[in-house]
Design goal:
This protein is mainly beta. The chain has one domain: Pseudouridine synthase (2-Layer Sandwich). 13% of the residues lie in helices and 37% in strands. The protein has three helices and eleven strands. Strands 1, 2, 3, 4, 5, 6, 7, 8, 9, 10 and 11 form an eleven-stranded mixed sheet that branches. A hairpin with a 4-residue loop joins β6 and β7.
Length: 217
């Protein structure tokens, strides 16, 4: 199957595109986003961040090693901002706020867990959220990540009894969709001239579960 990747922006330093759910952000020896982009656009493609395989949305790739180093440095110092929309079971209380946890990733199971105290292998995970709408026991939330831990959004909401719809790995019983998580906006400083740029694309509101809510972004 040939996947055509939607490109939102392309220049000599960066390419901003939309990753389809089901495609790997990067891997070794399999079909992944860098390979698909290289075949479609030509030239080198350097990953700078990841999305889980079953999560879609806006991603940024570098076209040069210099741009990759600059974008990676922005991620480390918090200048590369990632926002997501997620559909969760339940209603967050309060309707907006922050979540801060210590996460531990179990390499054998491939799952992350919230733990009560720091120990070897734990990392702090922090995000901010705002509820956009609720309907029939489900809520749509806008999430900003401050850290980029494995499965972070999924496990932090699930640990509060609000698993993402379609995320059976973390306790969802709703299998009517893929994991209801979408990378909707990225903001960063362009590696060539330092200007702040933002790129945004919302999920298809006609599809489940996004069609369950009336929401303004």
């Amino acid at each position: 199957m040939i996947h055509m990747i939607k490109v939102l922006h392309e220049d000599k330093s960066v390419i901003v595109c939309v990753k389809p759910a089901g495609i790997l952000s990067q891997c070794d020896g399999q079909e992944d986003m860098p390979a698909l982009l290289k075949a479609q656009t030509g030239g080198d493609i350097f990953p700078v961040h990841r999305l889980d395989r079953n999560v879609g949305g806006v991603m940024v790739f570098a076209r040069t090693k210099r741009a990759a180093a600059e974008l990676s440095a922005q991620i480390q110092r918090g200048a590369f901002v990632k926002r997501y929309v997620a559909a969760v079971q339940g209603t967050p209380q309060p309707p907006s706020g922050e979540m801060t946890d210590m996460l531990f990733k179990d390499a054998r199971s491939g799952k992350s867990f919230v733990v009560g105290r720091p120990r070897k292998g734990t990392k702090e995970a922090r995000l901010a959220y705002r509820t956009l709408g609720s309907s029939e026991g489900k809520s749509l939330v806008l999430v900003r990540l401050f850290t980029g831990r494995s499965h972070q959004i999924r496990v932090q909401f699930a640990s509060r009894k609000m698993p993402l719809l379609g995320d059976g790995k973390y306790g969802s019983r709703d299998n009517g969709c893929e994991i209801a998580l979408w990378s909707c906006r990225v903001t960063f400083l362009h590696p060539e001239d330092g200007r702040e740029v933002s790129f945004e694309l919302l999920p298809d509101r006609e599809c489940y579960p996004w069609n369950c809510f009336d929401w303004d972004f």
